[in-house]
Amino acid sequence: MSDYKELYDAILTGNAKKAEEVTKAALEAKADPTELVKKYMVPAMDEVGKRFECNEYFVPELLIAARAMKTSLEILTPLLAEAGAEPVGRVVIGTVQGDLHDIGKNLVASMLEGGGFQVIDLGVDVPPEKFVEVAKEKDGTILALSALLTTTMTMMKNVIEALEKAGVRKNTRVMIGGAPITQQYADEIGADGYSDNASAAVAMARKLA
Amino acid sequence: MPIPGLTIIGETINDSVPSTHKLFDADDIDGILEIAKMQEEKGAAYIDVNIGPRPAEFMADMVRKIQGVTARPLSIDTPDPAIAEAGLAAYDPERAGDEKPIVNSISALRAEMFDLYKIRPFKPILLVSENVVDGRSASCHTAQETFEAARQLVGTFLERCPGATNDDCIIDPGIAPLGSDSEGNIHRLVAAMELIHGDEFFAGCHASVGLSNFTVMLPPKRPDGSPVKGPLESAFLTKVMPLGLDMVIGSVKRKYDLLPPDHPAMACLEECLKLSGFDVLMRVREFYTS
């Protein structure tokens, strides 16, 4: 396979136009879509995450890189599906009922997409039964719950209880995050994972997938 | 020097501030009281008190103890009516020179919190970036929606709280981080403030934002070592104070100034207001990387 380091660089620097051009050129040159994703795109997003963790990158860089990744993925996804390639995992994300804050949730969703996950975004103010409904659709689903308010974070426990009541808790992974959330709270309510930033959320989702 | 006409509500006694969270967890009340004193010394007109998800009685205790070390009025910061009630009941207006406390904040879906006015008159921060659609809370996506939410919420407050006036209203149009604003929130906010400022219905009302939210998630410094956050927040103030913004929940340590049009942060903000989508993020990145 030819060297498509330009694709890696385009994503790392958040150049969506370049990412699109290189992806299309690579396909014309008969590049293997799965290899493009594995060898260049996912490593680029991993590097973005590393730079974020060590304060070389900040949120604008994360979002701009995730957009470049998404631009390429939109071109490649139909071909990946044809080739039978599976996403890294399925994440259903939403801000819990009573809470309208979506900035953190959107950031995590973008990074997860960039990390190769299939992301289903339920939006904000999502009732527990909606999370249960989508968890039932496929075993191994990861639910990513977000809350910004101390008054709404308790809804995360309600989601976990609703999963248990519906008999789907065992086959579902639950990760949580948001300003008032701590590892201690995740342990208290029986969540499977917690992360305090979007980059760490991708690592956590990979662990749970 | 503080900006004339700008009232600062000191933001630091807040459970979501990591250093303050540690003090709360360690039950280091003296440490909390030191923050209150420091904020008063550095010019805070109000001291915000946010205890996170702790019992209501803890808020009452904190209000009494903080009022023991400062005569500044307090801002009771919680979305939980029980915690707000405990804070208001414990508040001593005499100690604060007969100044009413602030309740931070009340949105249309939490309008029942206006009933706490019977316990003690207060100035509510009215969160008008949300409205109620079909009985559920929804974000305002346009300036017009925000303006209408403001009319509704100010009207509800004045109706439910006899004796309250426009001077008691603090309108919060909802500020979002500029570094992730690919959906035009800053455009909505500025346009909404223009509408509110131009309507006689709101004469005498105050307006406030949680200013630190504007630059959260951005780096502290540019490559030449100059600060990023203070200048961008100052640019925001320069743009929005002429539209009626006269209060902020903010840091007393930050140096706020009114900026000239050719200041790089002012140029960045003005250009962001002309851009949309991810171009806004690119322009913000250009500001802090160049």
Characterization of the model:
The complex is a heterodimer of chains A (209) and B (290). Chain A has helices at 5-12, 16-28, 33-53, 59-82, 103-114, 128-137, 155-165, 183-189, 198-208; strands spanning 90-95, 118-121, 142-146, 173-177, 193-194. Chain A is an alpha/beta fold and 209 residues long. Chain A folds into 2 domains: 5-82, Methionine synthase domain (Methyltransferase, Methionine Synthase (B12-binding Domains), Chain A, domain 1, Orthogonal Bundle), CATH 1.10.1240.10; 90-208, Rossmann fold (3-Layer(aba) Sandwich). The longest helix of chain A is centred in the middle third of the chain and has 24 residues, at 59-82. By secondary structure, chain B is α/β, with parallel strands linked by helices. Chain B has a single domain, classed as Dihydropteroate synthase-like (TIM Barrel, Alpha-Beta Barrel). Helix content of chain B is 38%, strand content 14%. Chain B contains 9 helices and 10 strands. In chain B, the strands form 2 sheets. Chain B has an 8-stranded parallel β-barrel, surrounded by 4 helices. A two-stranded antiparallel ribbon of chain B has the order 6-7. Chain B is globular. The chains are: A alpha/beta (209), B alpha/beta (290). The interface between A and B is medium-sized, with 24 and 26 residues.
